[in-house]
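Priority: medium. Attachment 1 of 2:
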């Protein structure tokens, strides 16, 4: 069983590292998406399990880092997550005229 857990940890962590280290701006969004999905999948597997407290904490930290990374990537591209230019996105939905 421990080997299966190690492989699962390795899978999401490998994708997480790939997202953090990706330098190609065109590939970056896909790397982030793949990592987020792998982290979420692993969180579902561990849900309610008492066996992996340190991995659960690492998963939460990874999601936070990926979220921040995505926001930085969007900011540097000048687009939101739908690739619309930021100037076309309303600042706040309630402030629409």
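Attachment 2 of 2:
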């Amino acid at each position: 069983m421990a080997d299966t857990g190690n492989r699962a940890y390795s899978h999401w962590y490998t994708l997480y590292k790939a997202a953090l280290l990706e330098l190609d701006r065109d590939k970056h969004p896909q790397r982030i998406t793949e990592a987020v999905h792998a982290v979420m999948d692993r969180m579902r597997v561990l849900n309610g399990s008492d066996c992996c407290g340190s991995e659960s904490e690492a998963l939460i930290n990874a999601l936070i880092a990926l979220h921040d990374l995505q926001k930085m990537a969007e900011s540097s591209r000048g687009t939101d997550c739908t690739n619309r230019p930021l100037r076309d996105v309303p600042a706040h939905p309630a402030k629409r005229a």
